[in-house]
Design goal:
The structure holds two protein chains of two kinds. Among the domains of chain A are: 4-49, no CATH class; 62-79 and 160-478, Alpha-Beta Barrel (TIM Barrel), CATH 3.20.20. Chain A contains 21 helices and ten strands. Chain A has helices spanning 4-25, 56-59, 93-105, 117-120, 144-150, 169-182, 199-205, 212-229, 241-245, 250-270, 275-278, 292-313, 342-356, 376-391, 406-428, 432-437, 440-457, 488-502, 505-520, 527-535, 540-551, and strands at 83-84, 87-88, 111-114, 160-164, 191-194, 233-234, 236-239, 282-288, 326-330, 361-363. In chain A, helix 13 links the parallel strand 9 and strand 10. The radius of gyration of chain A is 24 Å and the shape is globular. The longest helix of chain B has 14 residues, at 69-82. The model of chain B has no long low-confidence stretch (mean pLDDT 92). A five-stranded parallel β-sheet of chain B has the order 2-1-3-4-5, with helices on both faces. Classes of the chains: A alpha/beta, B alpha/beta.
């Protein structure tokens, strides 16, 4: 390669002559060009723009090797594509089961369960607060009986199942284990993920139940239980997706997610488990947003920072403990109600960034999701988008095909630098829990969200079909909401009544009492107690109520 | 009326935890010169109405993204009636299909802002209906 200094000199010359003359004639569209993360974009990147001490072996290395910048596996998609995993669930367990089977028939390779809000908040469907919400944004699950219906006819020893469940994650995992065991499948072979990431619920997603401390304990219990009992399960999916969707920048998404991850690792280590015993099963979840290069660089930077954290901060020895494996979803907040077909293109670009960025699994949004739950047709287009990227585009045939792009390498470095700045600041505040309790994280996200809103409202940021290229004849009154069956709640209430009539209520009471005692002792792992309660047909609401009684409920500060 | 400071409550009734839009709304309303209170997420309709009465607001802006608006929003209006304050304007925002607009209005919602609208539309509505200012396009 030519001398760095020489390239820098020629670049200076080029900037002051050819480039400057051109700009004088035709001014650039923006001054300056900026990423939402606050990084200014130069017109052109060269080897001379990389840091002086930039070293290929140190910063990039090789796929499957520290620091994993180019990918976590040696062959990446040359061996096997990413898992195509569409998030689905609505109405009753029967209806969701049908959608799962449809998606598997279409070539989807993993399941992803959406639960309704009462389930996510630990209320049975007959609770007053569940009015209007049963079966709306996901499937209603009250007991292991519903879980049996949800996975009816699906081979749990063959598929991997991701469940978007947080505050009551331990209970839903227990249900999954019990369903498998009652079908004769050993828990040791189960593959899948529970989201189980409570910290981002406090700052972004909102489905917290208990205060941070007992919540962290529940998470540690599930991580430690899985390490021993369900070794192929990912007991947590540490999620930046919702942080980003709440309006954060790409840098904040990575910084706050890794900040949360550090907190989980610290908690489990403090409970006495060796880092290499559990860290390999920590998984992550990010958004893929509009800015193509920024997103790719973000994924690469995230891998590098996490590897360093695990190696240097936590002293991990096993390379698997340092590997940031992640699921990606295209950014729902970028979908527009206007001209919805345009969303297919947005999703394709975002999905491409995720694949080039090295994701392990991917959900592509459906084009109609700004308006309602997706139809079978729109969700098929979304899945086909992934299949086209996989089979037709050729990007999956080479590992990290964009590595070495001067721009992407520079961006990867810049994002990493800014992530470390946030992480240092959070550490000085005492970690993520105090940073959340003080409202710092929430304020940072809310500020970024408002900046984004203003940029669009003032036309500085163009959203095609919304503030430019608007179709004056478009009729937004045409859209219809996909309505969950309004009788779902009645059906669930009936099933609950039947369940309570036929189960051994004395046994349920006894097991719930035992769970309560176990919850009162911080050093007891709650998973075995929850599993036994679930097996005896205790409901989600009953189990959560016991924990509410012991742990209390979280009341957040209001920040906007 | 020129000196009147309009007080607005942004409310999130129901279990929906997605509050980016509600927070952006609250801040945009504040930047538009209104006094704004935000309830935070997961409020019961009674809690929203109670806060509105206590804070003596002129307008409540409700937001829900889960599809529970038909069940939950009218309950806020009922709770206001119980407290003798159905003079407070109630606006609905969120993922609300057109076919739900009339049913919501019949149940006492003053205006509905569905997909494709934003804070600016709500601001203009308040200026026109509460402050009596004519709004040009």
């Amino acid at each position: 390669m030519e001398d760095r200094k020489k390239i820098a000199e020629v670049k200076e010359d080029w900037l002051s002559t050819d480039y400057a003359k051109f700009v004088a004639k035709v001014p650039e569209r923006k001054q300056p060009f900026m990423l939402d993360s606050g990084i200014e974009i130069d017109p052109l990147y060269t080897p001379a723009d990389l840091d002086e001490d930039w070293s290929y072996l140190e910063r990039l290395g090789f796929p499957g090797r520290y620091p994993f910048t180019r990918g976590v596996y040696p062959t990446m998609y040359r061996g096997r594509f990413w898992t195509m995993r569409q998030y689905a669930g609505f109405g009753t367990a029967e209806e969701s089961n049908q959608r799962f089977k449809y998606l598997l028939e279409q070539g989807q390779t993993g399941l992803s369960v959406a639960f309704d809000l009462p389930t996510q908040l630990g209320y049975d469907s007959d609770h007053d607060l569940a009015i209007g919400e049963v079966g709306k944004v996901g499937v209603a699950i009250d007991s292991v009986e519903d879980m049996h219906v949800l996975f009816d006819g699906i081979p749990l020893d063959k598929v991997s199942t991701s469940m978007t469940i947080n505050a009551p994650a331990a209970i839903l995992l227990a249900m999954y284990i019990v369903v498998a065991e009652e079908k004769g499948i050993d828990r040791k072979v189960l593959r899948g993920t529970i989201q189980n990431d409570i910290l981002k619920e406090y700052v972004a997603r909102g489905t917290y139940i208990f205060p941070p401390r007992p919540s962290m304990r529940l998470i540690a219990d599930t991580i430690m239980f899985c390490a021993e009992e369900v070794p192929k399960w990912n007991p947590i999916s540490i999620s930046g997706y919702h942080i980003r969707e709440s309006g954060s920048t790409a840098v904040q998404e990575i910084a706050f997610t890794l900040g949360d991850a550090i907190e989980y690792v610290k908690t489990v280590i403090e409970k006495g488990m060796d880092v290499d015993k559990f860290a390999a099963r920590l998984s992550f979840f990010f958004a893929s947003h509009n800015n193509f290069f920024e997103e790719i660089a973000k994924f690469r930077a995230a891998r590098r920072v996490w590897a360093k954290i695990m190696k240097e901060k936590f002293g991990a020895q096993n390379p698997k403990s340092m590997m940031l494996r992640f699921h990606t979803q295209t950014a729902g907040s970028t979908l527009t109600a206007q001209q919805p077909l345009n969303n297919i293109v947005r999703v394709a670009i975002q999905a491409l960034a995720a694949v080039i960025g090295g994701t392990q699994s991917l959900h592509t949004n459906s084009y109609d999701e700004a308006l309602s739950l997706p139809t079978e047709e729109s969700v098929t287009v979304a899945l086909r988008t992934q299949q086209i990227i996989a089979y037709e585009s050729g990007v999956a045939d080479v590992i990290d095909g964009i590595g070495g792009s001067y721009y992407v390498e520079k961006l990867t470095d810049e994002i990493e630098k800014r992530v470390w700045e946030y992480l240092d600041k959070i550490e000085k505040m005492g970690g993520m829990v105090p940073a959340i309790e003080e409202g710092y994280i929430q304020q940072e996200i809310t500020d970024a969200a408002y900046q984004y809103y203003k940029a669009v409202a003032e036309g500085e940021k163009v959203v095609v079909g919304v503030n430019k290229f608007v179709d004056p004849n478009e009729d937004l009154t045409k859209f219809h909401l996909h309505r969950a069956d309004p009788t779902v709640r009645e059906k669930q209430i009936r099933k609950l009544k039947e369940l309570r009539a036929k189960r051994d209520n004395q046994k349920v009471r006894k097991l719930l009492d035992e769970l309560k005692k176990a919850a009162e002792d911080e050093n007891t792992n709650l998973m075995p107690y929850i599993i036994e309660a679930v097996r005896a047909r205790a409901t989600l609401g009953e189990i959560t109520d016991v924990l509410r009684e012991v742990f209390g409920e979280y009341r957040p500060p209001v920040i906007f | 009326m020129a000196d009147k400071v309009v007080r607005v409550l942004v409310g999130k009734p129901g279990l929906d935890g997605h509050d980016r839009a509600a927070k952006v709304m609250a801040r945009a309303l504040r930047d538009a010169g209104f006094e704004v209170i935000y309830t935070g997420i997961r409020q019961t309709p009674a809690q929203v109405a109670q806060t509105a009465v206590q804070e003596d607001v002129d307008v409540i802006v409700l937001n829900n993204l889960t599809g529970a608006h038909l069940e939950v929003f009218p309950l806020v209006v009922e709770e206001l009636k119980k407290r003798g304050r159905d003079d407070i304007y109630v606006l609905a925002t969120g993922v609300i299909p057109f076919e739900d607009v009339e049913p919501l209005k019949e149940k006492g919602i003053d205006e509905v802002f569905g997909p494709g609208t934003g804070p600016i539309h709500v601001i203009n509505w308040i200026k026109e209906h509460v402050l009596g200012e004519k709004q040009g396009e």
